[in-house]
Automatic annotation (TrEMBL):
InterPro entries: ABC_BtuC-like, ABC_transptr_permease_BtuC. This is Iron-siderophore ABC transporter permease. One of its GO terms (molecular function) is transmembrane transporter activity. The keyword Acyltransferase does not apply. The chain crosses the membrane at residues 24-45, 65-92, 104-126, 138-156, 168-191, 211-230, 261-285, 327-347. The keyword Glycoprotein does not apply. Belongs to the binding-protein-dependent transport system permease family. FecCD subfamily. It comes from Photobacterium ganghwense. SUPFAM superfamilies: ABC transporter involved in vitamin B12 uptake, BtuC. It is found in: Cell membrane. GO terms for biological process: siderophore-iron import into cell.
Length: 352
């Protein structure tokens, strides 16, 4: 004989399985969109080729040499960089918003981007011109990563020392943003015009500057960080209910928050250090993922990665076709596209 509780449980299970299947189908559809955008990204550029030409090249070894050079040596690394960097920034932004309970939180809220920009400027001005060419491709991202990591470690130390809450962590990050921005502006004022041009160009963002070795490194770190987040998926999902409820469930809230902030910041630091400043991806893409699959981290983590990859790929395409014969810096495009998209998300939340 079924009791009332068992009847409710029996009725809830099919509904839950149906919800899981629906979210899996949504993830599959999102992956298909990302793949389509990547193919379009491969086919766009100053040298115009159709999707048919690109598909024929990928499946047929006998293709024009010029097409192979353009696709494999020039476009494909930038396309893959858009996918990996977009996914990394979005995943980092998703977890920042989760543990800080702030819809405006992103890796850049903690000063990661500003610190990386200042570090890259130091590398461009003092390192890249004095080191051998073999080290030149690494000195700028290494300097950017070092400076952004120092900013994250400073926040970590102050958080442990003062026991800061979410609001104070964001205020500290905002303070670091203004501090590193002022330092960068001071450096730009003092350096020669040639170095100033290199610094300004770096801060605009450029996907084509990533080498294959650097891309593999970013992808490996992204995979490891996502595995760590997936292992804590149910704890991160519970954090959205509030810290008091999460603590009542036995979740170490302070340790989980600090661990998530560190992993997200390191991931964002690595992405920014190789391609330059790219705004709004880590802010807008997480909201898009939540609208599609909800708050369950088992689906939100891969969905945010796919949304970030799709958003940066779309921005890459827009940067190639906006001005005929030229490619706009990716940072400019993401800002121009991200502002109206974020306004739409804000208005949508107000209507709900």
């Amino acid at each position: 004989m079924l009791t009332e509780g068992s009847t409710v449980s029996a009725g809830a299970k099919p509904a839950y399985l149906s919800l899981v299947r629906r979210r899996l189908w949504l993830l599959t559809a999102m992956a298909t969109v990302v793949l389509l955008l990547a193919m379009i990204d491969l086919s766009t550029g100053p040298s115009s080729y159709s999707l048919t030409d690109i598909a024929r090249l990928l499946w047929d070894s006998e293709s024009p040499i010029a097409l192979e050079v353009i696709v494999y040596d020039i476009r494909l690394p930038a396309v893959l960089a858009a996918l990996v960097i977009g996914a990394g920034l979005s995943v980092a932004g998703t977890q920042m918003q989760t543990v800080l309970h702030n819809p405006l939180a992103s890796p850049f809220t903690l000063g990661v981007s500003a610190a990386a920009s200042f570090g890259a400027a130091l590398g461009l001005v003092f390192g890249a011109t004095t080191l051998p060419v073999s080290l030149g491709n690494w000195v700028v991202p290494a300097s950017a990563f070092f400076m952004s990591t120092m900013a994250v470690l400073l926040i970590e130390r102050l958080t442990r020392w003062r026991g800061m809450n979410n609001e104070l962590i964001i205020l500290l990050g905002t303070t670091l943003v203004f501090t590193f921005t002022a330092l960068l502006q001071g450096l730009q004022y003092a350096v020669p015009d040639r170095a100033l041009e290199a610094v300004v160009f770096w801060t605009m963002g450029n996907l084509s500057r990533v080498s294959s070795t650097q891309l593999v490194l970013i992808a490996a770190i992204l995979f490891l960080v996502m595995v760590c987040f997936m292992r804590s998926a149910w704890q991160l999902t519970a954090m959205r209910l509030g810290e008091e409820r999460a603590s009542a469930m036995g979740i170490p809230v302070a340790r989980l928050r600090l661990q998530t902030i560190l992993l997200s910041s390191v991931l964002a630091s690595l992405c920014v250090s190789f391609v330059g400043t790219i705004g709004f991806v880590g802010l807008v893409a997480p909201h898009m993922a939540r609208i599609i699959v909800g708050e369950d981290q088992r689906f939100l983590i891969p969905a945010s990665a796919l949304c970030g990859a799709a958003l940066l790929s779309a921005a890459s395409i827009a940067g190639k076709i906006a001005v005929p014969g030229q490619v706009l810096p990716i940072g400019i495009v993401t800002s121009l596209v991200g502002v109206p998209m974020f306004l739409v998300l804000i208005l949508r939340r107000r209507r709900v």
